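PROTEIN DATA CARD
Card holder: DUF6533 domain-containing protein
Chain length: 193
Origin: Daedalea quercina L-15889
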Amino acid sequence: MTTAGDTLVTLIDLAQDRGLHAAAALAWLVYDYLLSLQDEVELIWSSPDTIPKLLYFISRYFGLVVASMACADIPRLYCRSAVIWAAVSLYTLVCCVELSLMLRIYALYERSRLSDAVVFYILGSAFIAETLCIGVINGLGFQVMLPRISPYPSDWPIEGCFYPPTPSWFHATWLPLAGFESESGIIHRAITV
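Structure generated from the sequence above:
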């Protein structure tokens, strides 16, 4: 078999594995959804419209949309747009979860002046710093990666994209997230002790 043939077989195997992983993730999300739907209807749908309720619905249902699109493999047809979609959609979900966490910490402090200082100044500043760091790292990474993304040749039996190797420093995107989560955990632990 030729080198191109080996590459094609490898890419087909990877596409199949990716599809199976996406289907498994979607199956777990749907299973969780079905298990908790009755409680969700009773406790959340009937509650007043609030910011935590909005954040819950975004993280819950937008997450299902993102997982469904990954399972349907729609983004692979739009090589560069797929990378941007993945970054924006995942950070949207992360933001919703982190804002929900900040509101929970605020509630644990029973909305005192101390909670105002902790949530709005310390965690708010950390959240803004995290967002800026991720934006800068993604911006630099996309400048390197996006121009090098290309679709598979049109005569191949599968559709998809060649993605360049991710620069090693690009993995630092998760450091600001880990820092924010660690800070939130420390504050939460300090409250509950």
